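seq as requested:
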Amino acid sequence: MPNDLSSQDQLPLPGLGGRVCPVRAKWRRLVEIELPAEAKNRDWPVTEDHCFARILLDNAAGQPWRNAVKPPAWRNAPEELLTRAIDLGAACINGTESLQVLNENSLKLRGKA
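struct tokens:
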């Protein structure tokens, strides 16, 4: 799936009072639709949307994301952080980043590896 903004990304999001925020919409589409769909054809260590979000946000923040952002991240994260996380996710899809390596780094940041 292309990582460009689509017409679906222009739809209002729940919790934003009907406003459109392309970066937040793009983030949700990536972790809720694109990455889980890609996982069906890849040898990735995770398949669930919340796992993709953890991996990408931890790596983008350089720490466990909940230390930097109040949940829910899609609503409360600064757009710059979401953009870094989106770029990492896109790089995983196009093969220039390893989701396995990003997952291992996320686990290390959390003291679980």
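Residues 63 and 109 are 6 Å apart (CA to CA).
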